[in-house]
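Holo prediction. Input below; ligand is adenosine-5'-diphosphate.
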Amino acid sequence: MTQKKKIVVALGGNAILSNDASAQAQQEALEMTSKHLVKLISPEVQLIISHGNGPQVGNLLLQQQASDSEKNPAMPLDTCVAMTQGSIGFWLQNALERELKNANLEKEVATIVTQVIVDKEDEAFKNPSKPIGPFLTHEQAQVLEKETGAVYKEDAGRGWRKVVPSPKPIAIQEQYSINTLINNDIITICAGGGGIPIERQSSRGVEAVIDKDFASEKLAEMIDADLFIILTGVDQIALNFGKENEKWLDKMTVSEAEQYMEEGHFAPGSMLPKVEAAVQYVKARPECKAVITSLEMLGNINKESVGTEIVY
Ligand code: ADP
Ligand code: MG
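Structure of the complex:
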């Protein structure tokens, strides 16, 4: 058997949801996304897809809270992440299968409920920073803080929100299952929403969220991906983003990227984790490249240089 090319694609938020959160609108968005993804697929390519879930898990937490009762209690965060991995995975499987059929490609698609191991000694647990769930008044937040021990912080003048830690992923629990699917030529959707964080020490789910760009990087390293693509809302990365002297980049080396990060060119929480993830991947696999670009550019990626390439 000749070695196939393994490509990990991390889908950004806009691949699934723009402003209409209905199931139908999200399925339509994923249908568009699938049309682009199918352009990457050939008998020589093994495709592995990860995705974000920020808005979906946020909405699900709101729904859970709105109908919380003794008989029908709200589900915790780890369970909600699992639920969104399942629902988004279903939508994407279904949309991809239809597009594959249209393109006369015979491939199966499967989703893995993915647990990602984190360390409870991770510094992030000392400083919860990721806001989740509804906006509350200060009084509501204080009551809940006493009742549950969760941490609440003021979020940019909009109200108080629960914050959870965002630890770094250490490893992916379902490594063997994921590799088995890939090796059987099944298009594999996994590590959705950064994966469900489980504590290394207890192997149990923990109230935290993992950045999907970091989890996708772990995935790419774990399966020895030949190409790591992060799809987001922009075609390329810019220096001085949004300023008059904005400069779009075709390519950057690891050392250039590290210099730009130090100079503060990439916004924390949006572009910075992507560049960090790309750099980490290329350091682990110096012969490979990472690409940060938009969905629309994906079709040309095997033919020409698109987006911003990160190389060793
Ligand atoms: P995703 O859902 O794909 O993770 P994010 O909104 O978290 O998307 O991050 C991508 C966004 O980061 C881009 O759409 C852009 O608005 C913003 N961004 C911040 N800094 C830069 C930069 N230097 N170059 C390009 N985009 C940047
Ligand atoms: Mg993001």
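The radius of gyration is 20 Å. That is the main takeaway for now.
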